[in-house]
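Lecture notes, part 5. Sequence design as translation. It can be helpful to think of inverse folding as translation between two languages: the language of shapes and the language of residues. The source text, in structure tokens, appears below.
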């Protein structure tokens, strides 16, 4: 009888959801999940869907979507498709600038209990943050949330998942999909930097607001002392990259091509390599968009000269 009781206790502990969470130690992260702006399919990017359906429980057991989960957050068909994906897979998503309507905020609150949440995996504090904010008060709330959870858990590692690359203050550092909400995201990063740079805690900032357009960065990595900075996103119809994050022993981060399944070292996307890649396209972009401001002084000067010579 005693043996049967111990067996029953073991089975109850083994299947308990709390204990099963300990196995969720391999994440897949990607930004801009709806994919290309040109493809209005009201669902996740087709390459992403294929990758998830075929590689879940092989390469990862949890999916983190780094914002811009939907194209139109007032599209009921697209929201229904998202809900089906949430029901089918172990997915956590973060609010991006495309996701800031009432329906998406309500869905996030319903699914995760809050727009900002956390979990602890072994010695790592994992934070999921909504940095699509527009006030200093919200920045203070986010910083307090980060600080309080660090003080409570005393982690060796902290991973901060966001949509915005809050560590990017200029497109010349790393060019992002849009600069919406970045003023406040940058303020949050500055506060975390001032408090924890050179500390014993290893910080990993992981964001998804890149890769939506052709010839712009789609993967990024930089390291500053104990801060590691990552960006990855899809949608450009050429390069389809994501991140695999393994918590089994320590925090191990690798890039993966979701079409070829090729694992790529993060050093391939070091800051200086990305800046070299983006610089000529960025200069051309600024010339194209601000040519009138460049030409106007020249036009005014030659107009003045011509008028003067005709007098």
């Amino acid at each position: 009888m005693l043996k049967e009781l111990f067996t029953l206790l073991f089975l109850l502990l083994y299947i308990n959801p709390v204990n099963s969470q300990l196995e969720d130690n391999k994440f897949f992260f990607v930004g801009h999940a709806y994919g290309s702006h040109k493809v209005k399919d009201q669902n996740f990017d087709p390459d992403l869907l294929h990758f998830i359906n075929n590689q879940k429980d092989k390469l990862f057991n949890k999916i983190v979507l780094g914002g811009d989960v939907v194209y139109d957050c007032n599209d009921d068909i697209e929201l229904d498709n998202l809900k089906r994906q949430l029901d089918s897979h172990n997915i956590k998503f973060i609010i991006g600038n495309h996701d800031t309507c009432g329906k998406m905020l309500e869905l996030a609150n319903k699914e995760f209990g809050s727009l900002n949440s956390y979990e602890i995996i072994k010695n790592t504090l994992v934070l999921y943050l909504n940095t699509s904010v527009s006030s200093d008060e919200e920045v203070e709330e986010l910083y307090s949330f980060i600080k309080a959870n660090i003080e409570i858990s005393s982690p060796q590692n902290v991973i901060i998942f966001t949509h915005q690359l809050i560590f990017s203050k200029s497109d010349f550092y790393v060019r992002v999909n849009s600069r919406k909400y970045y003023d406040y995201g940058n303020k949050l990063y500055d506060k975390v930097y001032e408090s924890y740079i050179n500390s014993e805690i290893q910080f990993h900032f992981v964001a998804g607001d890149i890769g939506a357009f052709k010839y712009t960065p789609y993967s990024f990595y930089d390291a500053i002392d104990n801060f590691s900075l990552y960006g990855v996103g899809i949608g450009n119809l050429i390069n389809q990259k994501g991140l695999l994050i393994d918590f089994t022993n320590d925090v191990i981060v690798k890039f993966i091509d979701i079409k070829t399944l090729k694992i790529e070292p993060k050093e391939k996307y070091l800051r200086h390599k990305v800046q070299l890649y983006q610089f000529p396209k960025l200069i051309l972009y600024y010339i194209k968009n601000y040519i009138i401001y460049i030409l106007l002084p020249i036009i005014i000067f030659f107009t003045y000269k011509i008028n003067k010579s005709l007098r």
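The translated text above is only one of many valid answers, since several sequences can fold into similar shapes. Confidence is low (pLDDT under 50) at residues 1-22.
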